[in-house]
């Protein structure tokens, strides 16, 4: 089974800068890591690889230093990787991003299943996986907890979705796109040996010159959504420590509540 995994490099902390004109995150300005939910998608891919003796190729779109995230993914067991990096495709919304990723997947080769994290830690839209599926004309199952593959299922997988306290089993024909929930499994850890091996694993780089997508369909120019402003919210909350007996604390709380109500 040939497996593709879509990952995103997200900022390690909230200490990031924003472009004053485009209001997009300047990703090159902060240290990046693999989006946490994407680690769960990688783990599902590794389980499928072990069951089918397949190959796992990891894809990401980002600045040149996103290569680190790809090397980290290959240290977890992914066999190959593909980086799409080009100023022309930068700053795109989820629709423009999905176009680029879908085109890169088609150019790279045929895949039986494409996995992604359900949500990213920075944008949390949950849209890219479904949009890639739409661009590729494939079925899509979102926010799954686990994947069951059985050769006797004849080109199908069975996934489990969690809805409140219930679990729903969904059958899906391959090829397909599946997004994996954060925390649905326990991602394996890289070792010194696998980190060293990752340095020599294949990494292909695509620019829009190879993808040949029209300039007005990618990046900011190809994004139908537009961020018109961005700001850091002010934190008006404050903490106040109270001590005393139960009755005294109750009276102090009442006084504070009455005080806050009087400000409205």
TrEMBL record:
<protein>
    <recommendedName>
        <fullName>Electron transfer flavoprotein small subunit</fullName>
    </recommendedName>
</protein>
<feature type="domain" description="Electron transfer flavoprotein alpha/beta-subunit N-terminal">
    <location>
        <begin position="22"/>
        <end position="215"/>
    </location>
</feature>
<dbReference type="InterPro" id="IPR033948">
    <property type="entry name" value="ETF_beta_N"/>
</dbReference>
<dbReference type="InterPro" id="IPR014729">
    <property type="entry name" value="Rossmann-like_a/b/a_fold"/>
</dbReference>
<dbReference type="InterPro" id="IPR014730">
    <property type="entry name" value="ETF_a/b_N"/>
</dbReference>
<dbReference type="Pfam" id="PF01012">
    <property type="entry name" value="ETF"/>
</dbReference>
<dbReference type="InterPro" id="IPR012255">
    <property type="entry name" value="ETF_b"/>
</dbReference>
